[in-house]
Amino acid sequence: MTEMFEQYLVQIEESLEKSCPRPNSGSLTTPVEESMRYSLLLGGKRIRPVMVLAFCQLCGGDPQRALPFACAVEMVHTYSLIHDDLPCMDDDDLRRGKPTNHKVYGEAMALLAGDGLLTKAFETALAFEGPSADSVRGAKVLAQCAGASGMVGGQCIDLDSEGKEVDLPLLREMDEGKTVALISAACQMGCIAAGAGEEVLEKARHYAEGVGMAFQIRDDILDVLGDAQTLGKNVGMDSVRDKRNYVSLLGVEESQKLVDDFTAQAENALNDFSGDTSFLRDLARSLATREK
Ligand code: GRG
């Protein structure tokens, strides 16, 4: 798994670098372009773009061809982190082990960098060099998953829930939006890059559901047990902001059981694919016990 992950990672980093070239110094748009590059190229685990490439390969496509979709998903993810860290949202100063975007470039530029990355994501997805119907399908899935019925909607529930009692169904709805939606976009876009049909996308959504929920609940656990240096972001923030999560509702042990159940669900979903699913299976397992 690790070797394959590294191979995907090299392609993704190279492609991201090319997608946002270093701006000409002195150009009037340099500040926003630098601010976009800062957050996009800071690192991060890159699990979403890796999923795009892995699903493309699983469906018999050439992962290289899926790179525009992979970069597009990572751009949307990075924009969401920049905006999430703003003082009007979670007000954080540490991300990916470095000062958050607004701490370096100021709030207005961080807002613009997020806007720039979100827009660039669609320009990038639509540059997919395959049948144009598939570029459009990819961009549409990304839009649906990132928007108000997906990630932005989840963030809206998150903001509204601060300081309030939250039950498990609401927590689930919030996490489906905040976290599962973009992971689902990644898995589906990988299939689309390989020219797969709707029935395959349905199976990819089942995997994403399991991995995405497990990923978020593990995130809740790490917010309590994790180490800021390893995670590259501050810990204990949900309790500081008086936000409910799986750990505050169920405790660490029960939450980890749920992580394992959702991971098993993701693995089961892979049984419906005919290709080699070992990479995506190992990825799901490694995310269930991740420390960062
Ligand atoms: C529209 C103003 C405006 C803001 C949108 C939608 C949004 C802001 C924020 C939601 C994004 C969010 C913080 C979701 C939580 C998902 C999560 C666990 C993110 C961390 O992902 P990792 O661990 O991060 O993959 P790295 O840094 O490794 O890429």
The total of helices stands at 14
Mean pLDDT: 96
- The overall strand count is 2
Main beta-sheet annotation = 2 strands, antiparallel
Ligands: geranylgeranyl diphosphate
State Rg.
18 Å
Structure class: mainly alpha
- The helix content is over 70%
Rough outline:
globular
Q: Are there runs of 5+ residues with pLDDT below 50, and where?
A: none
N-to-C order of helices and strands: HHHHEEHHHHHHHHHH
Terminus-to-terminus distance: 17 Å
Q: Widest sheet: strand order? A: 1-2
Strand content: under 5%
Structure report:
With 292 residues, the protein is an all-alpha fold. Helices cover 71% and strands 1% of the residues. The chain is built from 14 helices and two strands, in the order ααααββαααααααααα. The protein has helices at residues 2-19, 30-40, 47-58, 67-85, 101-105, 107-125, 132-146, 151-161, 168-193, 198-225, 228-231, 237-240, 246-270, 278-288, and strands spanning 94-95, 98-99. It has a two-stranded antiparallel sheet. α2 (30-40) crosses α6. The radius of gyration is 18 Å and the shape is globular. Geranylgeranyl diphosphate is lined by residues 44-45, 47, 77, 80-81, 83-84, 96, 151-152, 155, 178-179, 216, 219. The site of geranylgeranyl diphosphate has 16 residues, from α4, α8, α9 and α10.
